[in-house]
Amino acid sequence: MEKCEDQINGGEKQKDEPPAMALNHVSRLCRSVKESMDFYVKVLGFVLIQRPQVLHFDGAWLFNYGVGIHLVQAKGENSRRLPADRDHLDPMDNHISFQCEDMGAMEKRLKEFKIKHMKRTMKDEKIGTAIDQLFFNDPDGFMIEICNCENLKLVPAGSLGHIKLPLDRHNPPLEIGIGKWKPCMHD
Q1: Which residue among 101, 107, 145, 150 is the active-site one?
Q2: Are 31 and 139 in contact (CB under 8 A)?
Q3: Mapped to the 3 state alphabet, what secondary structure does 29-66 carry?
Q4: Are 79 and 34 contacting, i.e. CB atoms less than 8 angstroms apart?
Q5: Which pLDDT does position 16 carry in this prediction?
Q6: For residues 154-163, b (16+ Cβ closer than 10 Å) or e, as one string?
């Protein structure tokens, strides 16, 4: 796959296309910053990083795997926005998903930490692909998915956009050669 800058419509960048972007962080309200921080560090391997000193509220910043998690202590009105049921697991509900290289090791880790989880495998017999998924909640009831979703091929489905894949991450296979679709690798 070739690296490109403006590889759209024969090399011309579209007017309405946004600049290159990547997910920077996910922000989570928490009942206890300490409890949530311990969970993300010990269970998921995030690393506590320094926050800017200008932030004068209780919170913590964590980083790993190319993404940050910002924890913010819920107070007053914010507390009502936390999930009421911390045990509810529904894969169709809001969640954040992390790609994992070893699903067996991750499931073992969840069991070691006594974290209630749901395991499922989605198989597509037609194309011979299977995706393993683990769903569980953080201490505040926000759902997390761990998957091997890179097994799933990305096939553009008529969007006007252009798929940009970072060079420094695990990327799912991309089906190319459909119409004008070409992969675009970015640093």
Answers
A1: 145
A2: yes
A3: EECCHHHHHHHHHHCCCCEEECCCCCCCCCEEEEEECC
A4: no
A5: 72
A6: bebeeeeebe
77 catalytically annotated: no
User: How buried is 106 (Cβ within 10 angstroms: 0-12 exposed, 13-18 middle, 19+ buried)?
Assistant: buried
81: helix, coil or strand? helix
What is the predicted pLDDT for the residue at 108? 97
Give every strand in the sheet of 143-147, ordered side by side: 95-99, 143-147, 129-137, 117-124
Asked if residues 18 and 162 have their Cβ atoms less than 8 Å apart, the reply is no
CA–CA separation, 101 and 99 (whole Å)? 7
Q: What is the pLDDT of residue 84?
A: 85
Residues whose CB is less than 8 angstroms from the CB of residue 183 and which lie 6 or more positions away in sequence, other chains included: 1, 2, 163, 165, 174, 176
| Block mean pLDDT (10 aa), the chain, length 187 | 43 65 89 96 96 91 93 89 89 92 96 97 84 95 93 70 65 54 48
pLDDT at 104: 96
What pLDDT is stored for residue 21 in this prediction? 78
CA distance 148 to 130: 9
pTM flag (> 0.70) = yes
Greatest pairwise CA separation for the chain in angstroms: 54
